Amino acid sequence: MEKRTYGYVRVSSRDQNEERQVKAMIDYGVDERSIFIDKESGATFERQEYQKLKHFLRKGDLLVIMSIDRLGRNYELITDEWKSLTKDIGVDIVVLDMPLLDTTKNKDTLGSFMSDLVLQILSFVAEQERTQIKTRQKQGIANAKQKGVAFGRPKVQQPENFEQIYDTWKNGEITAKQAMIELNLKPNTFYKFAKEFQNATK
Predict the structure, then answer these.
(1) In 44-161, which ranges are continuous DSSP H helix?
(2) Which of 59, 66, 90, 202 is the most buried (most CB within 10 A)?
(3) Rounded CA gap, 43 and 95, in Å?
(4) Residues designated as active site
């Protein structure tokens, strides 16, 4: 059976650019049609394109990735997945920015030992970076909240003329839809304010 070469590219979100990784794959010799791209977190391997790629991989095939953190961000999962690919499926892996992680070379005991050692170190570093990023994000959000920065959708304020329009609506002079248009409110917000106003005037 013909041995095939695949490329795997991952960026963490849809607004990140994957072109640099794709170019590196093509420069290496991977057919663009054989490059699988995910735009999501590397915390797990339950990614649509990655799982599709694994379905195609066969013994003797070659998988090319840019760096170990593009494969994943969880230390234990990366090492387990690497073993699954190289031992269970029997594919070779080339990590472009780390020549030591090239299973097509140095297949002797020492070469395998060195590859496994480098893999464990890089996998650990990748997870530490992910942890640090999450910590910095939490700290940034906490600091911003202390400074009064609001997150999420801004709270809709009750219009100044709400009472007047509310009374007109309750008296049957206008419909609820007309009142919403007049106040520039969505139905759920209008009825929320109406309920609050009604309770306040009981």
Answers:
(1) 48-56, 68-71, 75-83, 109-146
(2) 66
(3) 19
(4) 12
